Amino acid sequence: MSSTSLELRPLELLPSDLLRPLGAFEELFCLFDQHFPTNGALAAQITGRTTVQQWRDALDAVQQRHPLLSACIDTTFNRVPHFRRVIGQRIPLHVVTSPIARWQREIAEEVNEPFTPDQAPLFRAVLLHQETHCTFILSSHHAVCDGSSRIYLLRDILLALSGCALEALPLAPSREILFGAQQRTSTEHGSPSLTAQRPLLPQVEGIKLTPEETTTLQHRAREEGVTIHAAISAALTIAGRAIDESWRSNPVRIMSPAEIRDMLGLEDQCMVSFGGGEISIPPGGSMTFWDLARFAKDGLSAVKSRENISRMIDLQSTAVSSNLTVEQAFQLKRNAFNAQVMFTNLGRLPFDNTFGPLKLETLWAPCALRGIEGEQTLGAVSVNGSLHLTHTSPAPIPGLLEGMEEELRKACAIPRKGNLLPK
To answer: Are 50 and 158 in contact (CB under 8 A)?
Structure first.
């Protein structure tokens, strides 16, 4: 039975293949993505001998473990979109065997390629394969997966590659339901899903600190009473203002997603499970590096409070309850989520980097765009004791990562000979 023929059915007569309604945040991402692709992606570099078939089998095993890896978004059943189970559609795996292929180009293509909500699965994978090493890229629609979820999916894929059996997980309720909010309902007809236009290809680059440099940064940040996130925010602000005149003459606004899995009682389920906040750093050069870091830390101190998360959920639930159109959702995004920078810090990997004969060497994540003019996306994650920074932008500020390198080096008194290494 087609989804179109289900438009007039009441919610209590859900067909068995409808998994659950989308929560407010998931619904917003569904709407955002139909105007501009907001895909998220990671690139992981792994050493060890593998075959393409082993990767194919591991990807299939992980798809069986997580329900949303076999789902699409049905927007026609009801005005509240629903996740719909789709059987027999494997996650696409594009294999690249050229030894000169670059992960930066491949991940940029993945970030840039729109998903269609009603076509499952809402995940794609790319494998830059060599006999003794490879780079694995995983991208997803933002309504079914966030940055932390992709990290856990990567872990599960590496576990499957190393011969571990994976237990199937139940589908978790939405973030809103887990937090205690009400699921919105509607008796209005659904609407067709749209596919966004493909935007300009972004540029992606990454740098990493050595383990020694990362340790030095951690110790100095602790002495100054700030977080690594705050220190990176300070380096970002100073470096950006040294290069871009508009950053010097205007407030620098940095949006920071924050993982709230622990608050929701989640472990490694694949879903959207984060909150967030924004800081606005006024123009002027009166604050030192560590003053800026303290300003950033103070500005984000309440991001993971129950009060802040409750307020965000209320605002997002109110927005979708007005039955936003795709165009109205775009206007909302342009007005409410238009900070120059989105900076996501995934922290230390929550698992060991060795999986039998395989080793996770580097990880570039998350890469994503919002469709905001002049946007800069920064991702941070620590792997093998080394802090990795990834920069994604369709209009990148030239030399931004190198400028951040210099500011972090100066702030932590790291000698030039121990500078950050481009990758």
So the answer is: no
Query: Are residues 131 and 24 both part of a single domain?
Result: yes
User: Tell me, what's the pLDDT at 377?
Assistant: 98
Alpha helices (H) in 22-51, listed in sequence order: 24-33
Q: Within this chain, do residues 286 and 409 fall inside the same structural domain, yes or no?
A: yes
Rounded to whole angstroms, the Cα distance separating 224 from 416 reads 22
The residue written with tokens 């493909």 in the block is: 198
In the predicted model, is pLDDT for residue 4 greater than 90?
no
For the chain, state the CA radius of gyration: 21
Do 122 and 156 fall within a single domain?
A: yes
- Do 248 and 155 lie in a common domain? no
Contact assessment for residue 421 and residue 402, using Cβ atoms and an 8 Å cutoff = no
Q: Has residue 397 been placed in a domain?
A: yes
- CA dist 150 and 28 (Å) reads 20
The structure's pTM equals: 0.94
Structure tokens that stand for 44 in this block? 């992981």
Nearest Cα residue to 121 out of 54, 73, 153, 62: 73
> CA–CA separation, 318 vs 343, rounded Å?
26
Residue 150 placed within a domain: yes
Domain with 372, as residue range(s), is 203-310+328-349+366-422
What value does the mean pLDDT take over residues 36-45? 97
| 323 domain-assigned | no
186 lies in some domain: no
Tokens 């080096």 label which residue?
Answer: 409
**How confident is the model over 148-206, as pLDDT tens digits?**
999 999 999 999 999 999 999 999 999 999 999 999 998 889 999 999 999 999 999 99
